[in-house]
Write a structure and sequence with these properties.
Layout: E1 2-7, H1 12-24, E2 29-34, H2 37-45, E3 50-53, H3 55-64, E4 67-71, H4 79-82, H5 86-94, E5 98-102, H6 119-133
Parallel strand pairs: 1-2, 1-4, 2-3, 4-5
Helix pairs in contact: 1-2, 1-6, 3-5
Length: 134
């Protein structure tokens, strides 16, 4: 299974996602793509197999992934304070990979009907979701 984790800003959520997946799946390929070098570095230190930064890296790796994981903003143009370009959002939303989005109102999007939970609670759900998918 090839998992792509995408994050931006400080990379804290992406780091938590990579660490959580790595704790359960030691031999899985995790590619981390950051919208900036700080986010990329955080995910690489957390245990990502491969890492890259920027728009082209995100677009390229969306085609290679079987599963894409990140906050909801990765699929919305100009979110995350403008770090997600329209081309990036299109690459995520057009990918044939299964997409797991973590709700985060800091991306400027509110999803009605979801319970307010700490980000870590959503991160904890990722491995259960992966087990059901693969």
């Amino acid at each position: 299974m090839k998992i792509l984790v995408i994050d931006g800003m400080g990379g804290g959520i992406g780091k938590a996602i990579v660490e959580h997946i790595r704790s359960e799946y030691s031999n899985i390929e995790i590619t981390a793509v950051g919208t900036n070098t700080i986010a990329t570095s955080a995910m690489l230190k957390a245990g990502a197999t491969n890492a890259a930064t920027g728009e082209n890296a995100l677009i390229y790796n969306c085609d290679k992934a079987e599963c894409i994981i990140g906050v909801i903003g990765i699929a919305i143009a100009n979110s995350m304070h403008g770090e997600i370009s329209p081309k990036m959002a299109e690459a995520v939303s057009s990918s044939s990979a299964h997409i797991i989005l973590v709700p985060n109102n800091k991306c400027g999007v509110t999803i009605l009907g979801l319970a307010e939970k700490p980000i870590q609670a959503y991160v904890n759900e990722i491995n259960r979701t992966l087990k059901n998918l693969f």
